[in-house]
Amino acid sequence: MGLRRWLSALLYTSALVPAVAVGEPLTPDEKSIVDRRLAFPQPHVDKLKLAEGSTFFGEKVVEVPSNRITKKLDDMEGLVTGIVAPKGVTVHDRVDELSLEPAGPKTKIRFVYAIHVDPGVKGGGKVRFNLTVVERTGLANTLTSDPVNLTVDVIKASPKSDDLIADFWGYRYYKGAAEDRIKALEQRRVSGLSIKDGARLPPLDKLGPRIAAQVYEFDRERRRTWVAHRHLVAATQHPDPKISGLAKSLVANLDKAEVTDVPKLGTSGAVAKIEKVEKTEKIETLQPTREEPAGGGGRGGGGGTLAPTGSYELGSEDDEPDVVPDPPPVSSEPAPPPGPPTPPTGPAPGTVGEDGLVLVENDPFGERKRRVKAIPGYYRSLLLDDPNIGYGGSVRFVYARADFKGNSALSSAVFYSANASITRFLGLELTVPTQWVDVELERTRPVYGLGNPQLAAKYRLYLDEVEGRQPALTFRARWAIPVSAPHSIPPTVEFKAEDFSREVYFTDAWAFNTNQTAVGLGMNAAYQYSMVLTQLQLGGDYFLPMVSSAQRFVTLNYGASVGVLPFGDLVGFFLEARATTTFIGATRTELFTYLGARGRFADLFEPSLWVALPIGTVADVTGLQLGVELRLAYDVPDVVGNTETRRETSILE
Q1: Is 629 helix (H, G, I), strand (E, B) or coil?
Q2: What does the alpha-carbon distance between residue 389 and residue 584 come to, in Å, rounded to a whole number?
Q3: Which of 561, 628, 631 is CA-nearest to residue 601?
Q4: pLDDT at site 179
Q5: Which of 6, 229, 413, 524 could cross-link 537 (Cys pair, CB 3.0–4.6 Å)?
Q6: 339 pLDDT above the threshold of 70
Q7: Can you tell me whether residue 49 is helix, strand or coil?
Q8: Number of alpha helices (DSSP H) and beta strands (DSSP E) in the chain
């Protein structure tokens, strides 16, 4: 018998357990040993020594004005954004714990974040990220975002036998719990959950608070599963044959349906004492089970004492890195008597709740999955270009009167629009304008005619995160195609319907210049802070004549919008301006101002109503206009944060 096998056999003689299945419950004492090994929060440090295969749970407390917490706890979630880390060092993109402690005008927010080093990694480097609280529902506003910078120095792991046994039983316990929770959530119509290490969670903005709390708990169980797994994998390369032999044996038994020859927790012979944790009053934690006001204090489902970390100020350390102690080793001695059991949060597995959930697809292409964090699209203003990529359609009706060569006419238009997304970033938009013109002359008849359909390709991206919503940029390439000759007003030949429509809809010059093809480029920027939404746009079009009598010209189009959303995404009130300047030949600038409101219902329907007033020479031709639009829109989620984009799995794979 070789030395390694002899050591392993000697180790197992201490205590063997009967056949135990994956997910078998642990006693309170055993659960305490496992949790101290797998998830041991420690104060945030700027210089961190982390053993290969280990995970650091850092605790950081920030203070924000209490009036910034405008949502209920049920409607918030903690994310980690703007992640920059060296190879082999992973910052988890969701916080492990998020707690609030109101303190008068200030509210303390306690984050527990996770960083792990892959087995076999050496070196380390600088890490930076943002600890962010966003609205889980609504428009995903950023409530606070605190930057974190630290340096990770990777060192060799030095586990003990008791540590590895705790890893083994912790892996099996938490894997079984996570798999059971997946099944329970699938019965609640939540799809897209995976036990795989690092797999993204589906978007949570449509989930009720009780179901969202269950998803948060699943994320914590899965995280602990893979913390244990990395510990064991790293230990298989340990220079001590006793440790590496035990680790290899445990890894071989990890996923077996039943095991019969693995020591119990705390029976390998190593003797160490678990540090006693003083029990203090818990604070409210972001894993809600009931409706509460945003500033409520009370008890939560996973928070600990909110202790400040004032000793870790930037620049307060000396030149030597701070050594973060490993979690206390597991013990063979009896653990302190457990407190009263914490009641389970959320509904019992397998029960059917009242939440109306929807199946969230990760990508329009089905099998082609992109690992991104999802956020809803931006709120649309009145008449500026839509900053979103998605599916939908709209009908916009405008009523106006116009004068041309001393003759008045009723000039109304209907714009039909349809949108489709090719990818999360690229979409197509088709707009078809129609006109109805009735000149107030005897014997003339109204004319209903088609304008120039416009086809646009849109590409959207997000800028670096700032306070409030993450700014979005949408670029457009567009092409307006003349498909109809100018429409004469019967029985006259002097007047054309377009003579009136071009004046009334001067800022949409492409629509009713039926003698020209228009090609152009444009850009739209959107940003929201708190309830204030701002949008800007800029673009240009080049008009090519279809007949020799028409003239080439260029237009510059620009606009701005300021909106207020006092009731979340239910309704917004907007003040908006759009202008068009023509170049080459006659130079002319016209400005239209708009005042109105847009609503959003059932996350699909977006009706709007506005009045428009022209300013400039066109004001002598047309006066007050009224407009209404009904839009049906489903926005495709995009990425949030300046995080590294993960590898995209191809269809062939």
Answers
A1: strand
A2: 34
A3: 631
A4: 93
A5: 524
A6: no
A7: strand
A8: 7, 26
